[in-house]
Design goal:
Arc Repressor Mutant, subunit A; DJ-1/PfpI; INH-QAR; Transcriptional regulator; transcription
Amino acid sequence: MTQRSVLIVVFDDVQSLDVTGPLEVFTGAGRHSGEPYEILTTSLDGAPVRTSSGLTLVPDRALPEAGTPHTLLVPGGEGTRCPDPRLIDWLREHGRHAERVVSVCSGALLLAEAGLLDGRRATTHWSLCDHLAAKYPAVNVDPDPIFVRDGHVATSAGVTSGIDLALALVEEDHGRDTALTVARHLVVFLRRPGNQAQFSAQLAAQTARREPLRDVQQWITEHPDADLSVERLAERAGLSPRHFARAFQGETGTTPGRYVERVRLEHARRLLEDSADGVEQISRACGYGTPEAMRRAFVKALGTAPAEYRRRFRPYSCAEPTR
């Protein structure tokens, strides 16, 4: 049996959860599977580092003393803004030979600086996607998913998405049962799909400035099964359909139709995760009308059918005992 190694790079002003979240996943997976990962934390000179929250982390060894790992994990944090050139040089050399290279949050900036994301699809925290795309035009930045895999490189959005990505890697290494057990222990989803959006519909869209439009946004959220055509929504806002559509997009940054699609998809996902209702009942409750219409929406947005989504991504009760 070949032991897989996980090397986590730490540095001053690193985001502590970017380090400890995946570390807990890999440690728990090794404990359950009986095949522990060889986990090492490293800093450039082996000295303790202070995280952005003030926590001090004591690494296992200096980075130059570490060989090329199976999985190289690069967390994010304020310390990625002005990285030490020695760190970039090490990543450039060893990242090309690791079996897997993983970043959490702004750790993607370090991978990009080392050239490891050139020609690849990648993501990072939503607030940094424009910066990543502008500074590194060779990177195909996708701002929407919580994590992205392209070849042997995987990038994830902020903080908790690092746990989602780590669970996906554990499932790849040790199977679904091990990943499920770890998720239960951590009381998290197994697992949010990588192409799940970083934001809910309400957060992804801006809040309209004018009260009638804000009221319409709230109405859509509370009544996904209603007639949400532009004509009916415009009537509710007291505007002509043309004026409403233009004003809604201007103030929220998205079209009424796209907003309705995201709200309905979100509502359907929550019902699949949290209720025992059948797919047909859920499709009506969310305004799709038929299971086939809901299936098409799920496949288009998430790449999976509703029944498969429920099977794979339903959360597990913390009250359920784990042995």
